[in-house]
Structures are given as structure tokens and as C-alpha cells.
Amino acid sequence: MRGKFITGALLGAAVGMMMMPEMDRSTKRKIRRTAKVVRHAAGDMFEDIRDRVK
């Protein structure tokens, strides 16, 4: 499961990097903000699950 998630994240990042030069400044800013929110949410979920498993 974790390997599939990491593979999907890497593929998504690669596609995003290819599309980034074509986007305007505000779109890039929105993507960065959303990515930051998602990263923090995923980290929080991981910590919650890890605490439950202990």
C-alpha cells in the first residue's frame, strides 16, 4: 500500500513539474498552497494512525 502511494506521489509530482512552466503565477501559488495543506494533513493522519497502532 505504501509503495503504491509513494509511486503515485512521484508520478503526480513529475506531471506537475512538466505542467508548471505553462501556468501563470497565481495558479502556481494556489498549487503550492494546496500541496502544503495536503502534506500537513497527510502527516497528521500518519501520526494519528501510528499512535493508534502503538
- Helix and strand pattern: HH
**Uncertain segments of ≥5 residues (pLDDT<50)?**
none
General shape: elongated
Rounded mean pLDDT score:
82
Gyration radius from CA atoms, angstroms: 14 Å
Instruction: Give the end-to-end Cα distance, rounded to a whole number of Å.
Output: 19 Å
How is the main sheet built? none
What is the count of DSSP helices, taking H or I runs of 4+ residues? 2
Number of strands: 0
Query: Roughly what percent helix?
Result: over 70%
Please report which band the strand proportion falls in: under 5%, 5-15%, 15-25%, 25-35%, 35-45% or over 45%.
Answer: under 5%
Determine the structural class based on helices, strands and strand pairing. mainly alpha
